[in-house]
Structure formats: C-alpha cells, structure tokens
Amino acid sequence: MPVALSPILRTAIWAVVAPFGFYCSLLALGSIPFFQRHLLYLHRVNGLWLRDINEPELFGFAKGQVTPFFLTTPDNESIYSWHITPLPLYLQNEEALASQEPGVAPDITATESFRVLKGDPKARIVIYLHGNAGDIAQAHRPDSYHVLTDASPYHVIALDYRGFGYSTGTPSEPGLIQDAATLIDWVINVAGIPPDRIVLLGQSLGTAVASGVAERYAAEGVEFGGIVLVAGFSSLPTMLGGYRMGGVIPVLGPLRAWPSLLRVAEGVIWEKWPSAQRLERLVRLTKTRLRLSLVAAKDDADIPWVESDKLFRAAANATVDGGLEEESFAAWKEERTIRNRDDAFVTTLTAEPNIVIRQELFPYGGHNAIMGHAPVALAVMRCFDLGGTVYTEKTSK
Ligand SMILES: *[C@@H]1O[C@H](CO)[C@@H](O)[C@H](O)[C@H]1NC(C)=O
Ligand SMILES: *[C@@H]1O[C@H](CO)[C@@H](O)[C@H](O)[C@H]1NC(C)=O
Predict the structure, then answer these.
(1) In which domain, by residue range, is 179 found?
(2) Position in ligand 1 atom list of the atom nearest CA 168
(3) Which residue has the least CA distance to atom 2 on ligand 2?
(4) Is 52 exposed, middle or buried (0-12, 13-18, 19+ CB in 10 A)?
(5) Which UniProt keywords apply (predicted)?
(6) Measured by CB atoms within 10 angstroms of the end CB, which terminus of the chain is less buried, N or C?
(7) Residue 314 CA: which ligand is closest?
C-alpha cells in the first residue's frame, strides 16, 4: 500500500528540501569556473546603465577634479581609472583644471591634471583598490575618495580591474594583480612619484590585490610608503566559510557543520588569493621599512573581522626568527594591544628593520562605510609617518 502523506507533512518536507536543494544546485553551479568567477567577482553587477561615471560631478567632485583615463596592461587590457586631485591643490590650479576637457582623457599625460600632479613636489598617492562587485563609482566608493582628497594633500588613483566597469577583459587572480601593477608602474615611471610616496589602500577583495602586488614588488626590492588593508581576509577558500554575500547570503557557511564537505568545497575554489602567506613573505622580504595597517569593523556582516586577526598573526610571525609559538601568541599580542572599550582595540607591533604592523578593530562601519571612517584616513597618514611617534603606550619588546 502506498503511504499517503498528509498535505501538511508534505509541505513541511518541501519547506526543508527545497531550500536545501536550491543551495546544493547553487554550490554545484559555483564549482563551474565560469559561474564561480561571476559569483565571486560580481564584476558584471554595476550601475553603468544608471549614471555616467565619466561625469564625476555627479558624485560631488569639482569640475575637472577627476580625470578618467585608460591604462594599457602588458597583456593589452584597457583599465579604466580615475585620477582625483586633492582639493587644496585643485584650488591653487582651479582655472586650468576647471577648463580641462571633460570625459575620458585620450592622452592622460597631455592633461592639466597630470601637469599639476607632476608639478606637485609634495605629491603623495593613494592607490585605491576596491572590492568585488560594482564599478569605480559604486556605493560608498566616491565618498571614500572624498574623505581622502577633500582636505588632505593626497592624490587618489582608483581603477576598475579587468572585466569591471569600462575595463576590458575577464577577472582572474593574476589579472587583477597585473592591473594594480600596471597602475603602480605608471605612477612610478610616468608620473615620476617614488614608491615611498605611494600607499596601497585595499578594501575586501582589494586587500588581496594589494597583498599580491606588494609581495611582488617587495621581491624586486621596491618598498611602498605603506599598505592599508580594510576588511581583509587570510585566503579566499578559508574566508568563504564565514562570508556572507551582501551581509546576508552565506556562501560556504552552512557546510561548516560537515568539515569534510567544507574542505571539498574549499578545494574547488580555483583562485586562492593567499593574502596571509603573501603578507608573511612581504614582511620577510622587507629590507628597510614597512608600514602595514589592518583595519576592520566589528560590525562587518560580510567578512568576519577575525580574518584580520589571521593576517596579523601571519605578518607578526615573520618578524621573529623561527616564528611565534602558537600557545604564547595570544599573550604576546595582548602585550602590544590597547583596549579602550571591549569591542575595539589597537595592536601595534614594531620590529627591525623599521617595521610597524598595526591592527585596528573599530566598532562601527560595517564592510563598506568603514572606508570613509576616520581609522582609514588616519592609517594612510600614519603610513607617511605624519603622526610623529608611533602611538603605543606599550611598545614593550
Ligand atoms: C590591443 O587591443 C586593442 C583593442 O582593445 C586592439 O585594437 C589592438 O590591436 C590590440 N593590440 C595588440 C598588440 O594586440
Ligand atoms: C610561523 O613561522 C614558523 C617558522 O617559519 C612556521 O613554522 C609556522 O608555521 C608559522 N606559523 C604561522 C601561524 O604562520
């Protein structure tokens, strides 16, 4: 006799099975490289159809303050970028900049803004490496450029990686690192700014790009003014266990109940973005000076802030020959930590040669708004050693 399930029971079973089935199909889809790329980079999700990013006044910039231009990578991708002139410098050159031809500059080196940049003896550059999804002017991004350029002397240069916004190509780990390297080479060789006047500022996925590119230059003996990583993560597969897309949709989180299944899923994440390893290597490669700043918000719903702990752990490990013992690490870190309230702290580690590694947990700012919050602007200023002595009440060594 066939068992007749009551309609209520049948509905209940479906209520459990359907989301589970949907989640499993998404996972299966996500294991296919094409879909994985789109799900992780979300590079096609943008607002280009809504507004014209070649008109930066739309985002509150002064006329001619932002110059959009394209860089060409060695593998012939066109990378869309913004050069944002700091307002104090803009004011001194207002007439020339405001009359600059609007839109994408066909030859950036022929623009007024480039002339102003080249002629700025104090020029300091923040290379802004954004996170996944959206374009150069998406959501919080323009506001975070404003924070850095409205009152400071810093030029910000931001870019859309390959496959994002108006840039050509398809995103990939080596590709994104190449795009950042292309911009850095341009700043050093074409704009003539020495690396110690350049800070790499990455957010979310951009922290992985910054770590990758900083390690690459360190291997060639190039040291930057500093590296600021906001809402960073240790490696992509490890991070996905705790990641929530848009702060809501767990990606591999539900698999944490089955560690072996989680490992299988982590194994099919093709691109690893191993930032913890890269930072460890960066620290070991440092010959003269390093300023590495890790900032995260306690209320980040996308990437758990403890990922920054892992980055700090890896970087700190490289400051001591033979590494730091696992058992005593927590106490070792606490000695270098200041807690002003129980949901925030600052750890400052100083080491030879002239290395400062700083980790800050800020109570507010979530995953994105933090980019416009004081700790990020301060971290950039600290990289340029504008804060006088390093602020540590407990620099016990
Ligand atoms: C580079 O790409 C452009 C189109 O974006 C194309 O016109 C040009 O021929 C390419 N150059 C090389 C050397 O492949
Ligand atoms: C720290 O460094 C030591 C020596 O290089 C290494 O054996 C150990 O795995 C490292 N620990 C971490 C957590 O990176």
Answers:
(1) 42-193
(2) 5
(3) 323
(4) exposed
(5) Hydrolase, Membrane, Transmembrane, Transmembrane helix
(6) N
(7) 2
